[in-house]
Amino acid sequence: MMYYLLPILAVILGFLFVTIFKPQQKQHMKLLLAFSGAFLLAITIFNLLPNVFSDYKGRYGIFVMAGILLQVFLEFFSKGAEHGHVHIDKDSQKFPWLLFVSLSIHAVLEGFPMHQHDHLIYGIVVHKVPIAIILTTFFYKSKMTRTSILNFLCLFAVMTPLGSFLSEQLTFLEAYQNEITALVIGIFLHISTTILFESSEGHKFNLTKLLVIISATVLAYFI
Length: 223
Hints:
This protein is mainly α.
């Protein structure tokens, strides 16, 4: 049940945070993104990679690269919303279908390996909170109706649990569990490293950011 509820609660938390506190400090958001990127990367390296490659088969590496390339392709449509960028037309009142579909594909896939890898849920939750904050902040500044905003966030919130549900129900996928997880590893590697590279102005050295990244890495190691 935890696998179904926590990703939804993460999106709700992000939505409520923006609704109640109306945050304005972009620097704080960059640090939160840096923390989420480092935490997701550490979870991927400490847990997903060893589990998949303990039974090494050459094709797993192909699936990791396929995941990276898939995420690059999805970002042509999401414009990088997975790592903190929203570049759709904020003057439009239309439902952003391309953004929704690309984020949904990403979210469904990340839900597939959750019930096989207990620690992954924490990385997904830590990743979803800042993304929900960024999406909500952008939507509030756009001309989208409140109904459209709530519909988008509610549907987005259930996509990761949907992926976990499908993984458990479609038993024929069990034979390809490592391949699917390797695909997700590639997606996470691309997203987390992009967040870390983009979370500072001009890629300058920043002590606060470094401490945040170290803290996220240590926390992920001991979970």
